[in-house]
Amino acid sequence: MKIDWLKPLLGHDGPFATVVLDATRGSETGEREVENRWRSVRRTLGKDGAPASLLDALEDAALRPTYLRAPHGRVLVANADGVLVDRLVRTPPSVNQATYGPVPVLLPAARAADESVSRVLVVVDRQGADVSWVTAGGTDIGSVTVAGEHDELSKAQAAPTQQRRVDARAEDSWERNAEAVAAEVARVVAERSPEVVLLTGDVHAVRLVHGALPKPAAELVAEISGGARGAGVNRGALDAQIAEALEVVRTRRRDEVLDALRAGQGRDDGGVTSIEDVVAVLQRGQVRELVVTEAFVAAEEQGAHRLWVGAEPLQIATTREGVVELGATDEIDEYPAGVAMVRAALGQDAGLTYAPEGTAELTDGVGAVLRWADGDTPHESAPSMSADKERLREGV
Predict the structure, then answer these.
(1) From CA 310, how far away is CA 344, in angstroms rounded?
(2) pLDDT, mean of residues 136-164
(3) Which helix (H) or strand (E) holds 134?
(4) Which domains does the chain have, with CATH numbers?
(5) CA 204, CA 262: separation in Å to the nearest integer?
(6) In the prediction, which pLDDT does 136 show?
(7) pLDDT, tens only, 234-244
(8) Rounded-to-integer distance, Cα 157 and Cα 372, Å
């Protein structure tokens, strides 16, 4: 998943405040609950030395409505220049987190991209549609209503000699209205570039709209049940259908990356694993997708791994001497491995994918899918037995 939206963090000086907040507003008291969560976070940041001006900027962002009904979280990163990252996360944190220090805590922010799915929701009937959209991370939320101009919608009972004409006029109205909806959906898709178009509502209208969509939009459609215009919708059932469809997109996206990593490792030229080897390919700008496991994230939270970096994102190494060898002369510092790796990934327009427990075997919990490889690229021999993995790994 692309993480280029984190680029505003590059070139900014610390200290940074990083906040991961439960932003769910699930009841009439939801606004007050979010305010209470924020006050607790604000106190923590204040005790750690964050200035009032930075806290005020974060507060404006933290309390801004998200217009999402399902549980969700919010990731914020700010410094003296203001709020640099504001991203929504599908799963709210079990504990609200706040840190204030010399570097931002990038893995929670990057995870927001991995969990987010940009989508368009189209709820149709035979008269028109309600079209709404949410871009990845919830940074662009909007809606539009399409009202068809053809209103002869009912196949009313008529004299036998006239029934066929009445039916034909009604069906023509449905088709014309569906064409108007399809045109608007195509426009929104072209402007917003969603990963999926969720289409629901009147069964006949859904079929007509789907059939009227141009190919680029039609290929993104996932038809779901439970939606309807007007009152009486079982919102819980519809939300469950939407969540299931979005999870299909996430799974497909993740599987494509993990399949590419396995294939690259199998060829011994398109994928690497272990902190040392991933750092080596990050230095050379070879990474297309950085992959981290849940275990790696948990270890990062405990400060398990640290790396050295220079002023440039690709100046990354396991030792200070290694960074100097890459040409760094000043601004040399030691960062948490997750921060250093995501920073280097940003510097080469790489993406980031989280691998849930059991979906990938990665040494040190980290791997990379490569854009290219040559004789100097680290590689590993494929072991025939799991116990042989470390013995057979070799760097060239």
Answers:
(1) 11
(2) 61
(3) strand 128-134
(4) 4-115 (3.30.960), 119-233 (3.30.420.60), 256-394 (3.30.1330.30)
(5) 43
(6) 67
(7) 888 998 999 89
(8) 68
